[in-house]
Structures are given as structure tokens and as C-alpha cells.
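Figure 3 (text version): C-alpha cells given as input.
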């Protein structure tokens, strides 16, 4: 039995989505070890709550890369939103805008950047870079023109982690054109359009220079790599194992986060985290381990089965859970959460 409405989301989505779409969203790479451990690791975090602190007035407002948000919980970039609900990214964006949140838009989104921006949501672009970097320029220019406030370079995907679908493949039931609406026609067949295998720190700098936007490195699990990203000009490091969809048995983000926070403690760079976060209490753990913001990947997709309403309800629930957890931990502001983790998950 699910413990809450949020816990039951996946089961309800599974009952209504075509099986290959559900499986595509749910799967982890390989044996699914990293996907499962990501969620379990948040539950290993123990709090050391404050008492006798006035928690009448709890506020979740925060600022990431200069954008004020009403919540420290953002929507991670995911493709196939249109396969989950016909309104896809637009429903996700409207609900996120209403919550005063941040949406990170996948370069494989099924809605145009201009349409997403027209919802009024604060949004960042996520990109993979191709072997021939110049082929990314039209996409980057479109995102800048449509008002993206930062560029997130996903650094953990030189190749896509493999897995075995149980039945039909998702592309047997979903038109791959769904993922190409922001690319030039014929982009994928151009020489050099395949994912770059030679990504390096200089690519972060190149993106900043070409877009004029702050750049975030997404998919970092090691403190030495976090340092290299910041030295190369990254404004933020996003601790993630891609929801366990890349290298199976990669360490859980909750376990990787503390060392990266320590490494960057004296820098201006921000630190975010995603992977397996399933409740407001998990978000408190992420903030407690030092993240400036936390992101949800699959949960908003499961909620999107019920369109804008479903995503809005998810955001309300997570917000209410986080406010309750903060009150119980004696925190009034997001920054107060920094010292409420008593025993961090071992790194
Ligand atoms: C269906 C699906 C599609 C995804 N597509 C992308 C993508 O296009 N770019 C990217 O950087 N990450 C992508 N991710 C990874 C998410 O951004 C995020 O890192 C991960 O889902 C977080 O874990 P969680 O699902 O446990 O919350 C995808 C994840 C899922 C489940």
C-alpha cells in the first residue's frame, strides 16, 4: 500500500500509460542498482532537529543563479513529456510557473522553447553536445532567444546506458519526432551529430561564451570533477547519476553530495542534486547535506499523466511535506536546513 498520494503516483501512471512508455520512464540502466539505491540513500539520512525555535513563519523562497524561486525544488529535464500527456511540457511549465518554481527543459523536449517560455515559467535549457559542436548552435540560439536563463550541460552521457525492455521498445509506440522539435530538420543525419565522446571542461567555457548564460554541469559525482567544472567556469554543479540510467552501480547522489559540498564550500558555485527524491522529507535531507536546490525527474512525469492539475498537485504536496519537515526540524528558511543532518549517509 502506498503511504501517500505521492507514493502511489507511479502505480497510477503505470495503469494508464502504454507499457513501453511506463517502462521507458521507470527503467534504470543495467540491473537498476543505481536507480534503486538513489532512493534508499535518502532514507538513510538521519536528522538532528532543532527545538525551541519559532517555526510560525516558514518560507521556502530561495535564489538560484540569480533567479528568485518560491521553492527550492525544481523539475529536472526529461524527454517524452508529450508521450505521457498530450500537453507535455506546456502542462509541466504551467504548473511549475504557478508554483513559482524552475523547469529545466530537455533539448529533446516535444514542445518548442518559445511555447514553453510563453507560459511564463522560469526555465533553463539542458543540452548534450554533439561531436561537431557547431551543430548545437541553432538549438542554443533558439533557447537564448526564447529566454532560457542558464544552460545545463549533461556530462554523464558520452553514450546512453543500456537496458533491456521487457516488450516493445518505446520507439515502437512513440514517434521519435516528438523529441526533435527544437532541432533543425535533418539534424540527426548530419555528420558529427552523434553525442560527443570527447567532452571536456573547455566545453563548459565554450557554452558560457556562446550563450552568455551561466552554465551548470549536470551528472557530477566526484569532488575532483566538481572542482574541474568550477575551474572551467561552471556556475553550478548538479550532483546526479541521471536517475540511475547511465553507469549502473554509480554511487547514489545522496552519498556523493557531502564531499562535493565540502570541496566547493569556499567557492561561489551553487550545488544541486537529483535522483530518487520522493518526498518533502527527502528534500530536507538534500538541503541538509548542503544542496542549494533539489530536482525531481520521474515524479513530475508520473504526475503529468493527470496533466497540469496532476503536476500542480504534486508540487503542492511536496511543498506541504517540506514545510512540515522544516517545522519539525526547527527550520524557518531554506538556509537553516544546512545543519539539521545528524548522520549523513557515508560517502
Ligand atoms: C524519462 C526520462 C528522461 C530523461 N531525459 C533526460 C534528458 O533529456 N536530459 C538529462 O540531462 N537528463 C534526463 N533524464 C534524467 C533526469 O534529468 C534526472 O537526472 C533523473 O530523472 C533524476 O532522478 P529521479 O527520476 O529519480 O528523480 C531523464 C530521466 C527520465 C526518467
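Below: residues designed for each position.
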Amino acid at each position: 500500500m502506498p503511504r501517500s498520494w505521492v507514493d502511489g503516483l507511479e502505480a497510477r501512471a503505470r495503469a494508464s500509460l502504454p507499457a513501453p512508455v511506463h517502462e521507458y520512464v521507470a527503467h534504470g540502466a543495467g540491473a537498476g542498482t543505481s536507480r534503486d539505491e538513489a532512493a534508499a540513500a535518502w532514507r538513510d539520512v538521519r536528522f538532528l532537529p532543532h527545538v525551541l525555535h519559532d517555526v510560525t513563519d516558514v518560507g521556502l523562497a530561495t535564489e538560484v543563479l540569480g533567479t528568485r524561486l518560491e521553492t527550492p525544488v525544481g523539475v529536472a529535464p526529461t524527454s517524452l513529456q508529450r508521450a505521457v500527456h498530450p500537453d507535455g511540457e506546456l502542462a509541466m511549465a504551467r504548473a511549475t510557473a504557478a508554483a513559482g518554481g524552475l523547469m529545466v527543459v530537455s533539448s529533446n523536449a516535444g514542445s518548442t522553447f518559445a511555447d514553453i517560455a510563453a507560459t511564463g515559467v522560469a526555465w533553463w535549457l539542458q543540452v548534450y553536445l554533439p561531436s561537431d559542436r557547431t551543430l548545437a548552435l541553432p538549438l542554443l540560439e533558439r533557447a537564448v532567444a526564447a529566454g532560457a536563463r542558464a544552460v545545463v550541460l549533461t556530462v554523464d552521457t558520452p553514450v546512453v546506458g543500456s537496458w533491456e525492455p521487457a516488450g516493445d521498445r518505446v520507439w515502437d509506440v512513440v514517434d521519435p519526432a516528438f523529441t526533435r522539435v527544437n532541432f533543425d530538420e535533418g539534424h540527426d543525419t548530419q555528420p558529427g551529430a552523434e553525442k560527443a565522446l570527447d567532452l571536456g571542461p573547455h566545453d563548459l567555457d565554450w557554452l558560457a561564451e556562446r550563450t552568455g548564460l551561466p552554465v551548470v554541469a549536470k551528472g557530477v559525482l566526484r569532488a575532483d570533477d566538481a572542482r574541474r567544472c568550477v575551474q572551467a567556469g561552471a556556475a553550478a554543479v548538479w550532483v546526479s547519476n541521471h536517475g540511475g540510467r547511465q553507469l549502473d552501480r554509480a554511487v547514489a547522489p545522496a552519498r556523493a553530495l557531502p564531499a562535493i559540498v565540502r570541496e566547493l564550500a569556499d567557492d561561489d558555485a551553487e550545488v544541486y542534486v537529483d535522483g530518487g527524491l520522493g518526498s518533502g522529507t527527502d528534500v530536507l535531507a538534500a538541503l541538509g547535506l548542503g544542496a542549494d536546490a533539489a530536482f525531481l525527474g520521474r515524479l513530475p512525469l508520473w504526475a503529468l499523466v493527470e496533466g497540469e492539475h496532476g503536476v500542480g498537485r504534486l508540487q503542492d504536496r511536496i511543498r506541504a511535506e517540506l514545510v512540515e519537515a522544516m517545522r519539525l526540524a526547527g527550520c524557518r528558511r531554506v538556509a537553516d536546513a544546512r545543519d539539521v543532518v545528524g548522520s549523513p549517509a557515508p560517502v
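The chain is about 35% helix and 15% strand.
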